[in-house]
Amino acid sequence: MKISALMTSAGINIGICVLLWSLYSVLRKQPAFVRVYFGRRIAEENRLLREAFILERFVPSTGWIVKALQCTEEELLAAAGLDAVAFNRMLVFSIRIFSLAAILCLFGILPVHYFGRKMHRLEISSEQLHMFTVGNVEVQSRWLWVHSIVLYIISGVACFLLYVEYGHIARLRLLHLKRATLNPGQFTVLVRGIPKTANESCSSDVDDFFTKYHASSYLFHQVVYKAGKVQKIMTGAKKACGMSGPSTDTTLDQRCKAVTYPCCLCGASSDSFQLLPTDEVAKNIDKKFWNYLQECAAAFVFFKTRYGALVASEALQTSNPTKWVTDLAPEPDDVYWSNIWLPYKQLWIRRIATVLGSLVFLVLFVVPVAFIQGLSQLDQLQKKLPFLDGLLKKPYMSQIITGYLPSVILLLFLYTVSPIMILFSTMEGPTSHSERKKSACSKVLHFYIWNVFFVSLASGAVINQLNPSSSTKDIAVRLAHVIPEQTTFFITYVLTSGWASLSSELMQLFGLIYNFIIKYVLRMKEDIAFVPTFPYHTEIPKVMLFGLLGFSCSVLAPLILPFLLVYFFLGYVVYRNQLLNVYRMRYDSGGLYWPIVHNTVIFSLVLTQVICFGVFGLKESPVAAGFTIPPIFFILSFHQYCRTRFLPLFKTFPSQDLIDLDREDQRSGRMEHIHHGLRSAYRQFPDNEDIKLEQILTVGNDEDQDEGCSSGERNGEETCKEQEPRRDLCHSTLKGLPVSRLRDSVRSIALLWTAEKRSGDRALIN
Amino acid sequence: MKISALMTSAGINIGICVLLWSLYSVLRKQPAFVRVYFGRRIAEENRLLREAFILERFVPSTGWIVKALQCTEEELLAAAGLDAVAFNRMLVFSIRIFSLAAILCLFGILPVHYFGRKMHRLEISSEQLHMFTVGNVEVQSRWLWVHSIVLYIISGVACFLLYVEYGHIARLRLLHLKRATLNPGQFTVLVRGIPKTANESCSSDVDDFFTKYHASSYLFHQVVYKAGKVQKIMTGAKKACGMSGPSTDTTLDQRCKAVTYPCCLCGASSDSFQLLPTDEVAKNIDKKFWNYLQECAAAFVFFKTRYGALVASEALQTSNPTKWVTDLAPEPDDVYWSNIWLPYKQLWIRRIATVLGSLVFLVLFVVPVAFIQGLSQLDQLQKKLPFLDGLLKKPYMSQIITGYLPSVILLLFLYTVSPIMILFSTMEGPTSHSERKKSACSKVLHFYIWNVFFVSLASGAVINQLNPSSSTKDIAVRLAHVIPEQTTFFITYVLTSGWASLSSELMQLFGLIYNFIIKYVLRMKEDIAFVPTFPYHTEIPKVMLFGLLGFSCSVLAPLILPFLLVYFFLGYVVYRNQLLNVYRMRYDSGGLYWPIVHNTVIFSLVLTQVICFGVFGLKESPVAAGFTIPPIFFILSFHQYCRTRFLPLFKTFPSQDLIDLDREDQRSGRMEHIHHGLRSAYRQFPDNEDIKLEQILTVGNDEDQDEGCSSGERNGEETCKEQEPRRDLCHSTLKGLPVSRLRDSVRSIALLWTAEKRSGDRALIN
Q: Considering the entire predicted model, what is its pTM?
């Protein structure tokens, strides 16, 4: 590819970027799209952002960039959680290391490459890109020491920065732990694989087990119901109700007032549900609900102290490791309810099936990638398929096809990856949303590294028809052959997949279209509860792939670095803006993405050295090749050090801190309040039915276990107030009842419950 | 190689075996060698095995075989520990699966191979071995379904047997845990990485930390001293003393009586130590000892209950994972004292250095293996080195060189492996003997699989000059090419390394020679305390390598199976005999070798399928090749299942069982006794000095922490009695003192100690 073709591609992308960014800066000021661009702030900060009509609204502006840059880490942490901070640090790390790499490589290595061979020089614009890669350096060149030194500096500084960042995230994680004092997940253990006993109910089994073996710290428990069918019915009901939900469009702070909204038949066709007035809906669902509740497969067990919960979660409970499996419970909002009742014994086979599925997908995806590579290696293709000649004779056509089309097609194919991977991760059976996303993140990352990086290289090699003698040599040499050749593709990939996709992320094209359809085509009410969470599972792999490209190409084809650097700068602005304004933090993994990032960077660094080893070997410079070996060991040793020094903090919590927290809470008397809050923290059926169930459970438990703690009435009122914000979909049913009547009904069912409970729970449940 | 060459090799080996076994059955009846052949029984069962001179002593007999076979698993467990049982199960598993494989392959597959091609048949003895391998089957043969079915049966049965065995060992491990009620390791946690504080002594740091964070279960602690120089001095002193040690040759049960043995200058030259009368030796060492004791780097912390210790050992203590690192302590006899004070921060770098070292060793070892392969491929070698012609013209010579010499040389080279690997494992810094041996075991196993199996194959392939086109194909095809070719070498390897080394193991050649030199050349007294422990780190890899050979060759070259089966039968008899009579169980890992065995078998099974995939591919039978894919996934799924079902039991202990044990001990009042025993369980300096130190520590602690528990006197007496058997090297010094004087001196030092302790421990220590 010539420089001019590259410039064509860059031009197209810069044009698209400028257009979309300007459009964004206008659209974000339009009240109609306020839900698209300020979803988080509306949902969490409850601001009214409606403004009057002024001309300024239609002039592109840059104020939002300044705002995004000015936001401190503290603010980001408060607004978007620790994961967002980890993501932000990843971008900061990339900017730092690639700024250094760009300076070193552009001023140190690029001249060595360009003047590597004595030859006739063309005008710079029609110079082949190949001129700027290591391919242009003569065999046995003495200038390879420059490459070695730059490699050493980049590896060393990258390790240093990684160390600093790892420490920083670990510190933040501990701080996060200490600050989240009212976090029910810290007191709760999720028990799975509860063995079935013939005589007693599952609930009393759990009670017996934990009073016997964890008597000193056990508080109470809450059983999870196997709710396959119930879940389906509830979802159907939710959908139906949701359409006739509250129309709190402009009045956002009317929550907690007992207002009855009329329920009307809406335009959507619904075969399975005939919509009835809300009371009947409730009754109808209620009946089915009680019919379908099945015996439990898991339970949440609550402990008196954080340390007690930690100890119970870490120990192997019985001599059969697939029974009474304990883990620290995820946060209430993080719980992935539809997986939580899965039999623990199934999980291993699900995991295998998922791995198999991902592998098959990985392999099948080679086809489109190879096809794309065929396009980018047009001159080779032309030789084999001569009928393309006519089309490709036109120079402009050829430039577009080699420079722009391949990466656009790849980008479109890649859009299918993350939904499929998240499907796989769901099948795997994680118990929390964040775990599911994290698992999808690693899957997508593996996919990107394998399919975009390696397969691109491999197919490039196949099309280039490398001489067969090299095929017996090792992989490093093969990579070394192909990397400089493939740089052009990678540069265009950075331009399209990087720059353009950042712009589309900023524009929120999908959100915009969805909003438009909902509002103007279907003429439905906007769903204020639906604010998306940040797609870490697609964005982290994307950024990490660019990091890998950057490291592996830096020394060999430094021309990629300025494009990458621009990408990271843009990404820094865009992602901060999106995290602050668009996405909502419903759950947080507590920085667990960082170890993935760390490992990927280490992998990239090692791979870079291996590739350079091959390249220097090809250039017949054994000294330079030999110099790439020590850094590999240094990097791996550094990795091992980080594993011992930081990784344990991301697997568990230090007991010292937990005990200190427990003691402080006990001293200050906050503990009772926390214990009280635990009773209503986890709710399997977050709609009306489960409120009744919850109340029943709570009152029942109160009477059973700690009578003195709180009366049913106070409890009823408090949960009603506290959990109001979450129940925004279908709460008309409950709100229709006056609070006093609600309390009466709850109390009567509670009495029934406690009476029944003593004669065995299952009688009532079935 | 021809059948006759194989028979030559087999003949030589059978001859050697018969000779050595007969020799053994005679030698074992000679009183002079009783220490060599009955080390364990003398040391542990204190039997007197001296018999009168009768002719029967010089007649070979087979009674010992019957005895070895009759011994039940219970007896083996009692005599040699759980590791021995695991080892025994490994042999049983091998016998079972290879009996089945031998029947199936010899009657099902061998005829298919032999009649695979229509050709002129020679006499069976001059038939090439190649005729019996899959190489003789025609391309696109329809008979490959026999191979597929046999493979399926072998894989399925192997997995079933593995499952049964894993479950069995896991059950035994739990039983072992429950039976070992007085096991101090269960109550003890080894703390490393204790941070240095400026003000206080390390001991009070430990005390503060555990009383603060584990107050409910913390009992007391014992500091480990950094004893680099001390250790050296002690070792020197021990050596010097040991030579003049007690001459309890015939009177084995004179222990615990206060007899003074005269100390005399012995024949060995000693530059660093001038041997003095024992009192002065003691004083001398004493002085140096106190001078060199340095501040602690680690500590043993004792807990009230097993569960308390488990909880403390599993939790991450502080926010810095390299500080206050807790692990369950090894058994007192298992502690590897010279590593225990190593700074925890060093360990990661030691681990890396060891891995690097092993890798380098692994690679360098390729040279001798390749050389050996050159010998076994003599006809190929002959073509290249024509000057060998004269030597190799003699048919008998050629048969010995191809059939016998290569594996003998390999065997000799392999003798260097295990000492080097155990050296690496020591450098790695394990805190217990069993851990060190386990780590060496995996290293040796990797080494064997890589160097004996893969490099043998690879060098065979290189010498065979495989056609270059195959080099671009994948590894399975390469293996497929070579395996049938290399079978002859593997068969001779089984004969020499297997049969002959078993015989030499039975004969205890090294022990015999050592014993002879000590007794008749150096004329020294026999060292009754020195009874070797079973070398699991060399024997397990050996047996597993034969397993790998068996699985991978079974279908392709079934002729190896009868030889292997004989090896396993012989091994079963020999190892049981040795475990019962020769080796002593000083420490026991509690069956931790089994997961290694399991993983290796799984690896072997998968590799077998991969090789068969390649072979069937070469035979252009896509159906048969396709049929090898599903078992791979099945085996890996099975492995994953075993990991979830059994592996956790080998990593930690189930808390339910521990709590039950604790409760029973508390109910029966045994707990106090156990706590009392803990005080003297771990002793860093197991000779005279440390007894004083121990007493001081114990008395001091008694007065500090639980005055009512036991008086210093009773304690003194008890430890003296209990620990007598261990102190057999240099106890003349202490024994010289009457018990009353000893007590007085201990008490006076104890008073000093407690007085000093309050003003800071270090004052006394320095």
A: 0.78
One-letter amino acid of A236: G
In this prediction, does ipTM exceed 0.85? Answer: no
Could A352 and B318 be called an inter-chain contact, meaning their C-beta atoms sit closer than 8 Å? no
- Write the CB contacts of A724 (distance below 8 Å, at least 6 apart in sequence): A255, A256, A731
**Predicted local confidence at residue B649, as pLDDT:** 92
pLDDT, position A518 = 79
DSSP line for B633-650: HHHHHHHHHHHHHTHHHH
CA distance B733 to B748: 19
CA atoms within 13 A on the CB side of A358: 27
Residues of B in contact with A352 (CB under 8 A): 633, 636-637, 640
A interface mutation test: which of B644, B657, B659 has the most A CBs within 10 A? B644
Split at pLDDT 50, 70, 90, the class of B10 is confident
Q: A with B: how many residue pairs have Cβ under 8 Å apart?
A: 109
Q: Each residue of B687-730: pLDDT tens digit?
A: 544 444 444 343 334 333 333 333 333 333 333 333 333 333 33
Cβ atoms of A76 and A70 within 8 Å: the answer is no
What gap in Å lies between CA B89 and CA B581, rounded to an integer? Answer: 19
CA distance A576 to A583: 10
Which residues neighbour B413 within 8 Å (Cβ) at sequence distance 6 or greater? B365, B368, B369, B372
Nearest-angstrom CA–CA distance, B748 and B696: 9
- Find how far residue B304's CA is from the centre of its chain: 32
A contact test, residue of B656, B660, B662, B666 with most A CBs within 10 A: B656
Q: How many CB atoms lie within 10 A of CB A605?
A: 28
Number of CB atoms found within 10 A of residue A252's CB: 13
Per-residue pLDDT of B535-561, as tens digits, reads 899 899 999 999 999 998 888 888 889
Q: In what helix (H) or strand (E) does residue A747 lie, and over which residues does it extend?
A: helix A739-758
Widest distance between CA atoms in chain B = 97
Burial of B28 per CB tally in 10 Å (0-12, 13-18, 19+): buried
Six token digits for residue B375: 């010998």
Exposure on the CB side of residue A652, measured as CA atoms within 13 A: 22
**A656 to chain B, minimum CA–CA distance in Å?**
5
Contact residues, chain B to chain A, C-beta under 8 Å: 170, 174, 213, 216, 310-311, 314-322, 347-349, 351-352, 356, 468, 471-472, 633, 636-637, 640-641, 643-649, 651-657, 659
pLDDT at residue A555 above 80?
yes
Q: Given this model, what pLDDT does residue A244 score? A: 43
**What is the CA angle A292-A296-A302, rounded to 5?**
130
Q: What is the residue whose two structure tokens read 């021809």?
A: B2
Torsion A15-A18-A19-A20 (CA) sign: positive
Distance CA(A92)–CA(B601), nearest Å, equals 47
Q: List Cα–Cα distances, B719 to A237, B256, B258, B689, in angstroms.
A: 75, 11, 14, 14
Residues facing B192 on adjacent strands: B298, B325
Q: Report chain A residues touching chain B, CB-CB < 8 A.
A: 170, 174, 213, 216, 310-311, 314-322, 347-349, 351-352, 356, 468, 471-472, 633, 636-637, 640-641, 643-649, 651-657, 659
- Chain A residue with CA closest to B471: the answer is A472
Q: Is the pLDDT of residue A339 over 70?
A: yes
Q: How many other C-beta atoms can be found within 10 angstroms of the C-beta atom of residue B424?
A: 21
Question: Is residue A452 within 8 Å of residue A410, measured between CB atoms?
Answer: yes
Smallest Cα–Cα separation from B573: which of B522, B499, B654? B499
User: Tell me, what amino acid is at A246?
Assistant: P
pLDDT, mean of residues B376-402? 66
Q: Which residues pair with B298 in a beta bridge?
A: B192, B224
